């Protein structure tokens, strides 16, 4: 991260994609300051594992003194995703 933030063009944010069921990666990214940004539903084909489509999500880490403006809609979306994403993952795991 220091090689990104300490040199031109001095980016304001770092985004990443991750499979929504990859709990180890999600924990790693959260531990390193990344925040949930958006859901990537399976029907948009962001991830394909074999013949199965899978949900993904994006995370963001704001750097170089920038931050996001939080709106009421953002709060509602984040709350909804926090509740729905784990439930969707559990349902997918239980439906063989």
Automatic annotation (TrEMBL):
Q: EC number(s) per UniProt?
A: 2.3.1.48
Main EC class the enzyme belongs to: transferase
User: What does the record list as GO biological process?
Assistant: chromatin organization
Which Gene Ontology terms cover its molecular function? protein-lysine-acetyltransferase activity; protein-N-terminal amino-acid acetyltransferase activity
Q: Which UniProt keywords apply?
A: Acyltransferase, Chromatin regulator, Transferase
Q: What is this protein called?
A: histone acetyltransferase
Its source organism is Caenorhabditis elegans
């Amino acid at each position: 991260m220091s090689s990104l933030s300490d040199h031109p063009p001095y980016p304001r944010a770092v985004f990443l994609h991750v499979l929504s069921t990859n709990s180890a990666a999600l924990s790693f990214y959260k531990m390193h300051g990344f925040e949930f940004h958006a859901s990537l539903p399976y029907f948009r084909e962001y991830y394909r594992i074999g013949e199965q489509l899978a949900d993904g999500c994006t995370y963001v880490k704001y750097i170089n003194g920038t931050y996001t403006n939080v709106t009421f809609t953002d709060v509602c979306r984040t709350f909804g995703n926090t509740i729905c994403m784990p439930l969707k993952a559990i349902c997918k795991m239980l439906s063989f």
